[in-house]
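Quick one: DEBR0S6_06920g1_1 from Dekkera bruxellensis, structure tokens please.
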Amino acid sequence: MSDQIKLENNRSAVTKADPKKRKRLDDSIDGQSGKHRKVRKIKRKFASIEPEVIIDSSTKRIHLPSLQQLILYLLTSSNSQPDFCKVINRRAVSKVLFIEVRGLNCTDFGVKSLLRVQNAFTLQKDHFRQELVSFSNAFDYMVPMTMPGSNHAVYPLMTSLVSVHLSNKERKRIVHQNSGKEATLDNLCLKLDQLIASGYPIHKDVTGAKQESVDKTSDYVSTVKFDHPGAKVFALDCEMCRAESGLVLTRCSLTNWDGKRLIDELVKPDEHIVDYVTKYSGITEEMLKDVKTRLPDIQQKIKGIVSSDDILIGHSLQSDLNVLKMKHPRIIDTAECYDHGSGPPMKPALKSLIFKYFGKTIHDKATGHDSVEDCTSCLDLVKLKLEKGLFFGKSLKTSIFSNIAHCNKMETTNEGEKIPKSSLVIDSGLQLSGPYGPDELVQCKSDDEEVEMLQNKITKHDLILMKLRELEFSKGISSQNDGNTESVVSVEEAYSNLGIHFDKIYNAVPANTLIIVCASCGDLSAIRELQSEHRSFQLLFGKNPSVKNKSSSSDWTQSKAQRLDDAVYKVRSSFCFLTLKK
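--- reply ---
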């Protein structure tokens, strides 16, 4: 199944932490009094000191790790204070809100160009774009920054922000603890906390499973234990289309350890399909026209082949099991066996893993994805893992969410209860890995919904990440609007809405909240086009430099390389705003 479709099935799920480690604060509000039942308590010696974040105008252009460092300094026990600002009484800073807005330009704030600007500077507020008056009321400084990337590429902002490098001491500790450990099928199977965090339906035979977790999917079909000859390890993948209620099963493939297909059938849903998503699913209306197989038929076939003692392999297999409405206890998930290039909490795409480790390209057919190919790809990745060892394909990184949740700088309520800090991500588009992900991940269809979601949930979380996208859609600098062109407004209206949205956001956050707005500016389409041309050249000729007769259309010239570098430099030259709400 495609990672794009699987993400849709996972994004709205809330990633839950181990209840033994994470006792959440009941932050519900009394409708009569409007007061929180539990209130965060600040020590008396800090309560009287007004917190401040003072930007040092002499500091040179900052990079994203400086903002990450600031967030960790405010919300954890880290003593590493960034050098571009000074923080007074960090203990009194209650929350951090990080907003990405692609499409904002420095000219919107009266600045002609940032290419030669190196230091933070005071804004001339009478030069602001009229629709952005709410920004002029909140921010005093513009801070030039370099977006994450390299000379040849721009990295996603949110992806780079949430991934945190471990200290040398921590890296050595992890390596020492795991030295000599081999990868086996048993130790690659997900444990209970991993299954829960990644949104898997819990089978009663999972070690440590509580009846409460099992009962959440009581309507699902469970695999049962039985003896059978042959394979004890299987790979599973499904293709899905979209109905009114969500994703529905339209193809199911099951192979054995050798890649032999045991099941490969089209499935006709009971619901009307509103979008076949053929580009990813490979399914068309014509293909399902005469299909008689239904969901219960596939459930029984799988149940007759796979014992609960067997192992199921797949990539983000929770999506497949949820659409199948089935439960199985022994799962190997290749999205957990291997890390994303940027580290947790992002999940790697199956396509990128296969290209990285085997040099093969999948998911590139005009007819859509092939679920059998996905099964065999997952098997290849597991076999490689068994050969190379437990650390192969893993990055020694953690996430900003995990750092915040597990630090010893916990909040104390008036009742003396210590609670860990929590995080919320609103519609970022990140493929997040459960154990390292935020406490809550919410999908929204518009900026209006995002702002409303923030207003409803701001009191419950300490770190909030969100991305307002209407402006980038209106300017046509994004290719990911889910095909919903009817919702695209004019550029003028998008600016007006952005001003209104930011005003609502500012009013919603409590006092002593640090608000960071990063403006991802520039059109990435030219960069993507040149990068695609470069990749094609590398695939054709990169491994065979002796090839002489290269056509000019597929040649990668110095001129094109310079154009790519120039385009990347321009896009990476950006800016951000910071303010601490008084």
